[in-house]
Amino acid sequence: METIVAKFGGTSIGNGKRIRKAAQAVVNEYMKGKKVVVVVSAIDKTTDELLHIVDESMEDTVTEKQLAEIVSMGEMTSVRIFSSAIESLGVKSEYVDPFSNKWPIVTDSTLLSAKVDFEATENKSKEIMKMMDQGIIPVVCGFLGRDTEGYITTLGRGGSDITAFLLGHCLMADEVIIVTDVGGVMSTDPNMVEDAKKLDKISVEEMRDLATHGAQVLHPHALKYKDPNINAKIIGFEHGDLSAVGTDIIGPSEQEMLKTTTLHGEPISVIAVVGDGILNKTGILAELTSILAKNNMNIFGISTGQISITVFVNKKDAEEAHRILHDVVVENENLSSLSLGKEIAMITVTSPDFIDTPGIISDVTEPLRKNNINIVEISSSQTSVVIFLEWKDGKKAYELVRGVLK
């Protein structure tokens, strides 16, 4: 029997009519013979309103324990209403909040940004399985957890999405469905570009970067909990149909889930182009990179400053790239000179944990500082850190950095 986890965001249950439509969508899937567990956020803007009231009434005197309990009331209200709406449609339902002995999400005691205890949560999720086996539709509070002392905790922003993906994994669900106020992931913000298109699918890594840089459809932290063996999609609430087509979330791949440190096998060369105030000159970066692309030369990294642009290329391409870029420098009045530097090593450190690990760059670079190894350039994304340094230091630096992930 197919099992689905359906998570409804605050906007998608923003009023009574929307809750009724959402409950009917759940019941429709149940009547098809599927097992369904529902995860709900607080009703639209409830949490923000509670936080505003707390700020006005207590300002900085509120404790973390008090705040966690207060903001939890949004989700605890939602589950009661949603479960009752399901039962009004003739199907047995039961709400599950942190005070229930069937509560599944176990965390540490960091009350306002708790970390999940996976083993304990997997064990407690068996209670949710039992409910579904009995023909009951469980409605579970998103965003919330409970520590081993019985205190309410919260999972931080995006917590309801975390709850959905986490339960999907623990329940070995076939699909996790995220129901939002948009019909899926768009090629860009439709409020900014009218002809934005809905994507049929998107990878976890792409979704993570989009979400980190402003896309509101899904919180990047939640994607850490996405099981690669479980289907997932984002759909709009307006359909009132959990079978509706949306945007499928693919992955993560095995590589994206691994903690890895790699040293590029061959030396890389660095070319520095300088010119007065070139950072403020339109089109210079495009001119430099496009000429290399036309000559089929790969760029491993780019660094920009007020008066310089540094490009990292294959050593085998370095002399030809230097010659080609020299022609650009001579012809462009905004550029004055360029140089071909030393052989460079490139180390890439990757981990899905980086997204919620403060200070990871200092953790990675500290062993290099202690061993007097100079960093030529460093860049980072949500899941990786790339370090460029002198080739002679490459192997030693690789061993030092690799130890960070152990």
TrEMBL record:
GO terms for cellular component: cytosol. It is an enzyme of class 2 (transferase). It holds the Pfam family AA_kinase. It catalyses: L-aspartate + ATP = 4-phospho-L-aspartate + ADP. Its EC number is 2.7.2.4. Residues 273-347, 349-406 form the ACT domain. CDD domains: AAK_AK, ACT_AK-like_2. One of its GO terms (molecular function) is ATP binding. This is Aspartokinase. It comes from Methanobacterium alkalithermotolerans. The lineage of its organism: Archaea, Methanobacteriati, Methanobacteriota, Methanomada group, Methanobacteria.
